[in-house]
Structures are given as structure tokens and as C-alpha cells.
Write a structure and sequence with these properties.
Elements lengths: L1 H13 L8 E6 L6 E7 L5 E3 L6 E3 L4 E5 L15 E5 L13 E3 L14
Antiparallel strand pairs: 1-2, 2-3, 4-7, 5-6
This protein binds zinc ion (2 copies).
Length: 117
């Protein structure tokens, strides 16, 4: 009696077609260069599904330097030679500052995120 029941259970666990539909892949994000995993649906031409929309933090503009002269009054030369670096999107001065925008990670095969936002 026990043996018959066990055999029946094994079959019911192995065959579950719905959970086999998605394929999990690993890629490196084109934007933040971090490794991430994502699922694709082979029945929809490997379309990416179920992505965390805030997994990727980034700055949409560049980290650039400018001399202090820009903020000084004409004729004021104090520290005018010093270069200040900052993110031009949000003004954060640390290069390591967390991104001021978030989106999902993107693969190198994809275009940039603008069309999804
Ligand atoms: Zn920013
Ligand atoms: Zn990313």
C-alpha cells in the first residue's frame, strides 16, 4: 500500500509544465555593469519578463568637472583654479553617490531604457 502511493507522488511532482515555461538567464547590465538574472519567456520570442523595475540605480547624465570660476563674481579669483566634479543630473559631488534614477537592469542586446520609462 505504501509503495503504490509513493510511485504516484513522484509522477505528480515531476510533471508541472507551467513552471517550466520561463528560462532564467544571467547577464551583465549595460548601464551599471552589475551582474543580474532575469527570466525570458520562450513562448514569446524570449521576451524578458518579471523584471524588478528599481534594481538598477544610475545617473542619466555625466560626471564632469568645472572650475569654481563659474560661481565666483567677476574679478574674484579665490580658488578659481580648483576643479569641482559632480554629476550633472543631480549635482551629487561624489562619484560613488547612489544613482538619482532607478530602472531595471538592461542587457547588452537591448536599447537604452528610454522607451520603457
Ligand atoms: Zn544623478
Ligand atoms: Zn543595472
Amino acid at each position: 500500500m505504501m509503495a503504490t502511493k509513493t510511485t504516484g507522488d513522484v509522477h505528480s511532482v515531476v510533471f508541472s509544465p507551467k513552471s517550466c515555461k520561463l528560462i532564467t538567464k544571467t547577464s551583465v547590465c549595460k548601464r551599471c555593469k552589475q551582474e543580474f538574472t532575469y527570466n525570458v519567456d520562450p513562448t514569446k520570442g524570449n521576451k524578458i519578463v518579471e523584471r524588478d523595475p528599481h534594481a538598477c540605480r544610475y545617473h542619466p547624465e555625466s560626471y564632469a568637472g568645472e572650475t569654481a570660476q563659474r560661481w565666483l563674481d567677476p574679478g574674484d579669483i579665490k580658488d578659481s583654479h580648483k576643479v569641482h566634479y559632480f554629476w550633472s543630473c543631480c549635482g551629487a559631488s561624489e562619484y560613488e553617490a547612489p544613482g538619482c534614477k532607478s530602472s531595471w537592469h538592461i542587457t547588452f542586446e537591448e536599447e537604452d531604457t528610454k522607451k520603457w520609462m
